[in-house]
């Protein structure tokens, strides 16, 4: 009898390193391109994990317990298009495999308030992810937490939209409502990606009014 294929490898590999991407410097604070770093810093604050500068790793690094898991948190202090320098240095130093890494970053394909998970694949036009792929290896299957920031509607407006405009409070509020990922994060960090994706990607439950209207039809 042929042995079963091990296609669900990702379901048994726990996360050891969580990364939040952004650009360094006050001029980029609060911009859409920094939403991954903002999410990581909020996670560190909630978990009471201080982030300290590690010049040899080109980033801010902390270690502590998140959702009952011992993890390291990293915010690269390089510019976005050099993010791989910090992530690869950290992964190599602590002997962390790509499939043990979760990277949070901004995603224009989704509206603010939408967060999606993905494993592997291409860069999708994101310079930070492109550099991670180049630095970790083009076949590296690191995991991605894609935080929707919306699209300006024109390619000519993208740079200003992502890096020069502060995110309006209404947009930030809709994103921060989803930041805790209370039901998803324990599954995700434990390596149960299938159930984490199913829970995160499930449509929101209908309200009582919506259900009443549906019952009338």
Q: Strand order across the biggest sheet?
A: 2-3-4-1-5-7-6
Overall tally of structural domains: 1
CATH class group = Alpha Beta
Rg value:
18 Å
Structural class call reads alpha/beta
Sum this structure up briefly.
The chain is of the alpha/beta class and 217 residues long. It is built from 8 helices and 7 strands.
Structural commentary:
This protein has 217 residues and is α/β, with parallel strands linked by helices. It has a single domain, classed as Peptidyl-tRNA hydrolase (Rossmann fold), CATH 3.40.50.1470. It is 33% helix and 19% strand. The protein has helices at residues 35-46, 83-94, 127-136, 158-163, 169-176, 185-190, 193-201, 208-216, and strands spanning 17-20, 52-54, 59-66, 69-76, 101-107, 115-119, 143-148. A seven-stranded mixed β-sheet has the order 2-3-4-1-5-7-6. The longest helix has 12 residues, at 35-46. It is globular, with a radius of gyration of 18 Å. The termini are far apart. Residues 1-11 and 210-214 have low confidence and may be disordered.
Summarize the topology.
Layout: E1 17-20, H1 35-46, E2 52-54, E3 59-66, E4 69-76, H2 83-94, E5 101-107, E6 115-119, H3 127-136, E7 143-148, H4 158-163, H5 169-176, H6 185-190, H7 193-201, H8 208-216
Parallel strand pairs: 1-4, 1-5, 5-7
Antiparallel strand pairs: 2-3, 3-4, 6-7
Helix pairs in contact: 2-3
Short key terms for the protein model shown above:
single chain; 217 residues; alpha/beta; Rossmann fold; 7-stranded mixed sheet; 8 helices; globular; disordered N terminus
